[in-house]
Design brief:
single chain; 165 residues; alpha/beta; Nucleotidyltransferase, domain 5; five-stranded mixed beta sheet
Length: 165
């Protein structure tokens, strides 16, 4: 299974692809970010996200995809732009025929670190350990995307166990 995790945004979109091997081990296949210039109009930035993400999906052919659900507390303007990016990301996965799962930030933290209120460094260190990497993946958005991909694999395992029961 090859899981693609995506940390949505419009300025920076993190992506991470994690493969689960038959022995249950996990491997980081690829990760990185899509950056869009802030001085470009939003429609151009959204088109860039769609195009680049579609190319990554076509290159790696993930089995499943996961996107972090939107969470915001105060800044509605930021939430709206992130939601626009999220919509384009969902469209790219859907158009590629990749099954999509969505996870809340606290669920991701709980699944990776054992604590839903974990801070970023704790989650990133667990990603490094789970993927047997020498260093924490950078930038943070890529590490977050890898965490989402790992959670998607874990959730898929759980669903398989539920279906077999």
């Amino acid at each position: 299974m090859l899981s693609m995790g995506i940390d949505p945004g419009t300025a920076i979109v993190g992506y991470g692809l994690v493969r689960e091997h038959h022995d249950g081990s996990l491997e980081a296949v690829a990760y990185g970010v899509i950056r869009t210039p802030s001085d470009r109009p939003m429609p151009e930035r959204l088109a860039q996200i769609y195009t680049e993400l579609s190319q990554i999906i076509n290159t790696y052919s993930p089995t499943i995809g996961a996107v972090e659900e939107l969470f915001f507390a105060k800044n509605v303007t930021t939430a709206i732009t992130v939601a626009q990016g999220r919509g384009v990301i969902l469209l790219a996965l859907q158009n590629a025929g990749v099954p999509i799962y969505e996870y809340k930030p606290n669920f991701i933290k709980q699944s990776i670190s054992g604590y839903g209120g974990a801070d970023k460094p704790q989650v990133q260190e667990m990603v490094r350990i789970l993927l047997n990497l020498e260093t924490i993946p950078k930038p943070d958005d890529a590490a977050d995307a890898l965490a989402i991909a790992i959670v998607n694999i874990q959730n898929s395992r759980y669903q398989t166990l539920q279906d077999d029961a």
